[in-house]
Amino acid sequence: AQKITQTQPGMFVQEKEAVTLDCTYDTSDQSYGLFWYKQPSSGEMIFLIYQGSYDEQNATEGRYSLNFQKARKSANLVISASQLGDSAMYFCAMREGGTGGFKTIFGAGTRLFVKA
Amino acid sequence: NAGVTQTPKFQVLKTGQSMTLQCAQDMNHNSMYWYRQDPGMGLRLIYYSASEGTTDKGEVPNGYNVSRLNKREFSLRLESAAPSQTSVYFCASSEARAGKYGYTFGSGTRLTVV
């Protein structure tokens, strides 16, 4: 069964520094998608970045990049130059491939605190 | 603004009462989803609708029913609410299979069952 694991319940980072949020996944599918979402204290869910299992390059979106290591089944989120507004909950997610390709499963999340 | 609209934002129910959570999207997305979020457990899929006219169970469907009323609207019904259904409920939509653009989420419904 597909599974997403985020082992860091909470992380602290100094403003302007980079931070890596860990995510490992488990799937037997060859085709799958990996996502990161941000949930600020206001509660909304915001899509950040996507990586397809066949993408050879790591995905980047502004200050966000996804460190995709397929053999290790990891999809870590790197936030460069952290800002106070980055303080939030971050969820790693995976969309399974094949005929069940509409379901996305989420990890338990990592709460990031950015210190001034 | 284009997006996913959920109503209501807050609701308190007594055990055994019923209610319907409404969700509508105006992005012409084919697929819609209902998730619940509980502390320490991330989001869990309740039901989804891959396209208009179809619905399928997710990870935690017991105690819920859904209706895909048309392409825009996807409702979630609790027939007999239980305290275990106290949660934050999110509706989401996507292009088919949530490709590189991921899901667009509604703002959530905070439901308390007493």
Describe the 3D structure.
The complex is a heterodimer of chains A (116) and B (114). Chain A is 0% helix and 51% strand. With 116 residues, chain A is mainly beta. In chain A, strands 2, 5, 6, 10, 11 and 12 form a six-stranded mixed sheet that branches. A four-stranded antiparallel sheet of chain A has the order 3-9-8-7, with no helix packed on it. In chain A, strand 10 (88-95) and strand 11 (104-106) form a beta hairpin. Chain A starts with a strand and ends with a strand. The model of chain A has no long low-confidence stretch (mean pLDDT 93). In chain B, 0% of the residues lie in helices and 49% in strands. In chain B, the strands form two sheets. In chain B, strands 2, 4, 5, 6, 9, 10 and 11 form a seven-stranded mixed sheet that branches. In chain B, strands 1-3-8-7 form a four-stranded antiparallel sheet, with no helix packed on it. Chain B has no helices and eleven strands. Chain B has strands at residues 4-7, 10-13, 19-25, 31-37, 43-49, 56-57, 64-68, 74-78, 87-94, 104-105, 109-113. The model of chain B has no long low-confidence stretch (mean pLDDT 93). Chain B is mostly beta strands and 114 residues long. In chain B, a hairpin with a 6-residue loop joins strand 5 (43-49) and strand 6. The interface between A and B is medium-sized, with 23 and 29 residues.
Number of helices of chain A: 0
The string of secondary-structure elements of chain A, in order, is: EEEEEEEEEEEE
What are the segments of chain B in which pLDDT stays under 50 over at least 5 consecutive residues?
A: none
How far apart, in Å, are the first and last alpha carbons of chain A?
41 Å
Question: Tags for this entry?
Answer:
A: mainly beta; six-stranded mixed beta sheet; four-stranded antiparallel beta sheet; 12 strands; globular; B: 114 residues; mainly beta; 0% helix
